Amino acid sequence: MSALERVPIKSREPPQLEARRNPWLALERLTVRLGGALTRSSDIRLLDRLPDGGTLLLARQRGQVLTPARVQRLLAWVEEGGYLIVVAEFPGVADPLLERLGVKREWTSPSARGDASVEVVVPGAARALNWGRSRYGLTLEGDRLPEWSAAVGQPAQLLHFRLGRGQLTVAAGLDDRLNNRQIAKFDHAELYWTLLERYDQSPSPRVLLLARLEMPTLFAWLWQHAWTVCLAALLLLILGLARIIPRFGEIRPQAPAARRELREHLAAIGRYQWRTGELAALLAPAREHFQRRLALRQPAIAALPPAAQAPALAALSQRPAVLINTALVGQASTAREFTDAVGLLHHLERDL
Q1: Mean confidence (pLDDT) of the chain
Q2: pLDDT value at residue 212
Q3: CATH class of this structure's domain 20-218
Q4: Which of 142, 46, 65, 131 is nearest to 99 (CA)?
């Protein structure tokens, strides 16, 4: 065994389950090992309540959720002292944030790419660092100029801006350079930490990584903003289901329907005839009732012909004979004539 020499051999193993699920796992562990902290999330609502200071690493696929109001709040957060690292969207993909800064993206031809890496000189860094060149680059449109950039000619791979008291770095293909596969290539990891040490104003770098941004579901949004309404709706749903769900067991007999009285039936008939204008049909029973009362109390007057009854009743009750004759045999074509006739018959009945 003394004649043998130990020779280290490197062998690559397939990534474990955690690394396959999380392409930023190596970046997270690197940040923690160097004394920082990295929190990864996909909740777009975090953009509305960013903490003071620290670093925000914003990945691609964000165009649909970056509303103008969110872009304004994000830039205001940077101006208050935050550090924003933005992964540039691919050319042709909407990017409201970069459009606000005047940064354009364009594909680069293989012949124009040149070397596989580009030299990055961060102000205050100990040395120049190499950064893997992406398939697309960054150009500027407008009057805004970067504080520094990483490019050999155009387009650039990195652009750095100072906004108020904060800093903003735009990088092409940053998510590919810092993932598990490429973070160890060139000086990707060192450049990432150099940027944090240079521009993160926290005592120790605090990074919030927002990747694969998702809007909250309708139910999550309702529960956050209207949970009392949700609880009330759920309670009503439970009560409704409890009422309509079949119950097992003996069926209880239904209570018999209440029988209506005869006077209710007659009142209903009278209301119907009143609405349909059949006043003569309503007046005839009142006249018959009066004639029966007259035959009982004044049989002599009841025996007279209808034309002679009116003067006799007028002499008895001291009322006009014309009105009495109308009430006995006249036509009641209007509601007023009907009520006058019925009222007069009622008064005559009391005078008998």
Answers
A1: 84
A2: 79
A3: alpha beta
A4: 142
Q: In Å, how far are 41, 52, 70, 191 from 206, measured between CA atoms?
A: 14, 11, 21, 16
Q: Taking the model in full, what pTM does it have?
A: 0.59
Measured CA to CA, the distance from residue 284 to residue 306 in angstroms comes to 14
What is the DSSP-derived secondary structure letter of residue 154? Answer: S
Longest dimension (CA), the chain: 159
Looking at the chain, the number of H-run helices and the number of E-run strands are 15, 11
Radius of gyration of the chain (CA): 48
| pLDDT, tens digit, 9 for 90 and up, residues 109-158 | 765 555 688 999 999 888 999 999 888 999 998 888 899 999 866 789 99
Question: DSSP characters for 42-75?
Answer: EEGGGGGSPPSSSEEEE-S--TTT--HHHHHHHH
Ranges in the chain annotated CATH 3.40.50.880: 20-218
- Single out the residue of 178, 112, 115 nearest to residue 139, CA to CA: 112
Four-CA torsion 145, 147, 151, 152, nearest 10 degrees: 80
